[in-house]
């Protein structure tokens, strides 16, 4: 089955055409700066990627370009849109309604719209993607895959905030988490690498990219996660502050005369690695600056690793132990120095990194020492494949139901 995976952002449209049974990406690309005069479209895999300046007033126009390139570009992977069997959409916020991926119908669309209050930019963008697909491919089944649904298993003691209960009732303010598709994928793959059933394992999964989140997965069930009502909570990130004393917010608003949207901007776009180092949100630049003697860059590095370390400790306590710690995304997969700093000093907890394995490059692999009670594993994340797989399974099931 060929599944078109769509990840629509407020000004972007990312896509992959995946042949599920072959586990193969047969086309991919991204339309960026959708709606602005300098929009462009990147299409193609690795060295075959081409960048085309293109006018696209909205997501509908971007979708038309994407579909055209899938069937008409030089290396077009398919001859007609009939070769697309299903579409999988990444949706950021599924709220309390969606604890798993679902076939999209009018009711699902209405609920995604209703939940936009909790993730205004993201859910509205996803809806634009869905509507564009409905227009250009009205007969192809579509599935919604939510970033939050993996965390619907969290117990109330983990997802509630100690605020007046009425705000939960009135506004549904609670922890929803994010990056769920990635945490689900890497936990499933980790079980394969460990050659043990997921249901027998206590895992701590760490998605460390520009956005960072960690979760505690106890016998296959997510029991806690670091992101909250929004993806701002938890770990220090590229430009996001993560958890801070909430009293800092009114303090800054008063003393810096900031509006709510300005203070939101400070916490989301000017903090984290960028805010502390003053150099960049990109860990490679921060690392280079710290190695060149920049003290603030070194501090940013130290704070980032300390932030991950604290969640490791917390989640070991939450689960009463851990069998494996799983790392993914740009930093988790690639930065040996950050990994060294995260695991330094954790030997008393039975967590021992193998320095040599940590230096080696590769795909899915263990990097813990042979005498480490807790395994440390790297799993390159693949959210698109997970979305394609969910879509494949749900569409197949719905077709069987229809035949019966
Ligand atoms: P996102 O998808 O959240 O934008 P990524 O998963 O691509 O982010 O991760 C981006 C982060 O990964 C950046 O901070 C970048 O510096 C870091 N990164 C990528 N490659 C390396 C590397 N080889 N060494 C250190 N950091 C790296």
Automatic annotation (TrEMBL):
Name the coenzymes or cofactors required: Mg(2+); Mn(2+)
What keywords does the record list, in alphabetical order?
Answer: ATP-binding, Cytoplasm, Kinase, Magnesium, Membrane, Metal-binding, Nucleotide-binding, Transferase, Transmembrane, Transmembrane helix
Which pathway is recorded for this entry? Metabolic intermediate biosynthesis; acetyl-CoA biosynthesis; acetyl-CoA from acetate: step 1/2
Q: Which residues cross the membrane?
A: 312-332
The cofactor remark states: Mg(2+). Can also accept Mn(2+).
Binding site residues for Mg(2+): 7, 383
Residues the record marks as site: Transition state stabilizer: 179, 240
Which residues are annotated as active site? 147
Q: Which residues make up the binding site for ATP?
A: 14, 207-211, 282-284, 330-334
Q: Is Transmembrane helix a UniProt keyword of this protein?
A: yes
Q: What is its EC number?
A: 2.7.2.1
Q: Name one GO molecular function term.
A: magnesium ion binding
Return the InterPro entries for the record.
Ac/propionate_kinase, Aliphatic_acid_kin_short-chain, Aliphatic_acid_kinase_CS, ATPase_NBD
GO CC, alphabetical: cytoplasm
Q: Name one GO biological process term.
A: acetate metabolic process
Q: Name one Pfam family in it.
A: Acetate_kinase
State whether keyword Transferase applies: yes
| Residues given in the record as substrate binding sites | 90
Which reactions fall under this protein's catalytic activity?
acetate + ATP = acetyl phosphate + ADP
- What family, per the record? Belongs to the acetokinase family.
Subunit note:
Homodimer.
Q: Supply the PANTHER family for this chain.
A: ACETATE KINASE, ACETATE KINASE-RELATED
Briefly state the protein's biological role. Answer: Catalyzes the formation of acetyl phosphate from acetate and ATP. Can also catalyze the reverse reaction.
Q: What is this protein called?
A: Acetate kinase
Record organism? Ellagibacter isourolithinifaciens
Taxonomic lineage of the native organism? Bacteria, Bacillati, Actinomycetota, Coriobacteriia, Eggerthellales
Q: Write the gene name.
A: ackA
């Amino acid at each position: 089955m060929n599944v078109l995976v769509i990840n629509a952002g407020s000004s972007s449209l990312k896509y992959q055409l995946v042949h599920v049974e072959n586990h193969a990406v047969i086309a991919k690309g991204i339309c960026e700066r959708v709606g602005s005069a300098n929009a462009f479209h990147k299409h193609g895999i690795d060295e075959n990627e081409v960048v085309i300046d293109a006018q696209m007033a909205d997501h509908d126009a971007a979708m038309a370009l994407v579909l055209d390139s899938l069937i008409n570009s030089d290396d077009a992977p398919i001859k007609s849109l009939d070769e697309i069997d299903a579409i999988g959409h990444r949706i950021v916020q599924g709220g309390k309604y969606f604890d798993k991926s679902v076939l999209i119908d009018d009711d699902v669309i209405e609920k995604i719209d209703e939940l936009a209050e909790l993730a205004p930019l993201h859910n509205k963008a996803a809806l634009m993607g869905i509507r564009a697909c409905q227009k250009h491919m009205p007969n192809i089944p579509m599935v919604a895959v939510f970033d939050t649904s993996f965390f619907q298993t969290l117990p109330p003691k983990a997802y509630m905030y100690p605020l007046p209960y009425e705000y939960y009732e009135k506004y549904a303010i609670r922890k929803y988490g994010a990056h769920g598709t990635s945490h689900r994928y890497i936990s499933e793959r980790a079980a394969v690498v460990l050659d043990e059933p997921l249901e027998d394992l206590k895992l701590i999964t760490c998605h460390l990219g520009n956005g960072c989140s960690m979760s505690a997965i106890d016998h296959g069930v997510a029991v806690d996660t670091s992101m909250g009502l929004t993806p701002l909570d938890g770990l220090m990130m590229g430009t996001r502050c993560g958890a801070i004393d909430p009293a800092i917010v009114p303090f800054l608003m008063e003393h810096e005369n900031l509006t709510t949207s300005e203070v939101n901007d400070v916490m989301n776009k000017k903090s984290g690695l960028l805010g502390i180092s003053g150099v960049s949100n990109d860990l490679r630049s921060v690392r280079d600056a710290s190695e060149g003697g920049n003290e603030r860059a070194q501090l940013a590095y130290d704070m980032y690793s300390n932030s991950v370390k604290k969640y490791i400790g917390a989640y070991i306590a939450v689960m009463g132990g851990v069998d494996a710690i799983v790392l993914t995304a740009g930093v988790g997969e690639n930065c040996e120095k950050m990994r060294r700093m995260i695991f330094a000093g954790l030997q008393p907890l039975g967590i021992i990194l193998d320095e040599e394995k940590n230096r080696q490059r590769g795909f899915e692999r263990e990097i813990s020492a042979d005498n480490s009670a807790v395994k440390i594993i790297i799993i390159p994340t693949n959210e698109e494949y997970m979305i394609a797989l969910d879509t494949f399974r749900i569409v197949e099931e719905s077709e069987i139901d229809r035949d019966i």
